């Protein structure tokens, strides 16, 4: 059996794609990336019309057949709820087209500065993306480990329910799941700002390189902005500044201000701590993706606990009552306050119970 025979069931005719995209009409164009242009259109899948995305290889962007077939190989063999699904592909002449499930809400980078994307939603998106990357790093069965090599917020897609889907596997590298050593890569690829410094400077690639990139994304989510900006035509990377402010306990200066009011302090502390650890210079100090998933889930629990308390408690009224407490009551978070009240406090000789 040939290499192509493995994927015969995924092939689709170019004419079907032209029909779905109005011959690649401008009204169907939804984006451009390092791979090429992306269109949307409907195909008949399982007997019903389904919206999908068509990613068309543009060789002018520097990617070619190798990256195309790597994506076909990757997404046909690796299936996870937090990886974008490959529906079909087309390889006719110069036309190389990947057909994906449609990401209704686009990519995460476009929502970083949107205050409508709540802290709770952001936590759930980060957990989903972390689960997808954890699956790639530690796959089950006989699958090889996958190093993504281009983790960034624009490669995290969002479906109609705001579920995160990792995408763009053209630069990924496969290796044995139990492999512990580092690859030495001569052709370093990736996106400035997101790349592990040890990989970017010396070509040393490991699964911790993806962890670093994911840490940058976590900071973007928390700060409500991309990790870079252009000033006077020069690219300025913000990651080191973010690290410095965290070290100096000045995180408040960079947190997305429109979200601060609804962020539980415990949740933010848990989230920022694991994000910071991802950016450690020494790779052995960085957490695994499994550890990141665990910490993000704790941050979500803390946030949801806080929101539940807010729904049940009028804190303005409670603060007036606390002025009468004997002895005086102090607390650092709403969670601490709730636990304190649940035990009862003395108000001028009267017990106040939950």
Automatic annotation (TrEMBL):
UniProtKB keywords = ATP-binding, Cell membrane, Glycoprotein, Kinase, Membrane, Nucleotide-binding, Receptor, Serine/threonine-protein kinase, Signal, Transferase, Transmembrane, Transmembrane helix
| Occurrences of domain Protein kinase (ranges) | 24-300
Q: Which SUPFAM superfamilies match?
A: Protein kinase-like (PK-like)
Report one GO cellular component.
plasma membrane
What highest taxon heads this organism's lineage? Eukaryota
| The keyword Plastid is annotated on this UniProt entry | no
Where is it localised?
A: Cell membrane
Query: For this chain's UniProt record, which GO biological process terms are given?
Result: defense response to oomycetes
Read off the PROSITE patterns from this record. PROTEIN_KINASE_ATP (PS00107), PROTEIN_KINASE_DOM (PS50011), PROTEIN_KINASE_ST (PS00108)
Q: How does it sit in the membrane?
A: Single-pass type I membrane protein
Entries under InterPro entries matching the protein: ANXUR1/2-like, Kinase-like_dom_sf, Prot_kinase_dom, Protein_kinase_ATP_BS, Ser-Thr/Tyr_kinase_cat_dom, Ser/Thr_kinase_AS
Amino acids binding ATP: 55
Family annotation (Pfam families): PK_Tyr_Ser-Thr
A single GO molecular function term of this UniProt record: protein serine/threonine kinase activity
Family statement drawn from the similarity comment of this UniProt entry: In the N-terminal section; belongs to the leguminous lectin family. In the C-terminal section; belongs to the protein kinase superfamily. Ser/Thr protein kinase family.
Indicate what this protein is called per its UniProt record. Answer: Protein kinase domain-containing protein
Q: Which organism is it from?
A: Lactuca sativa
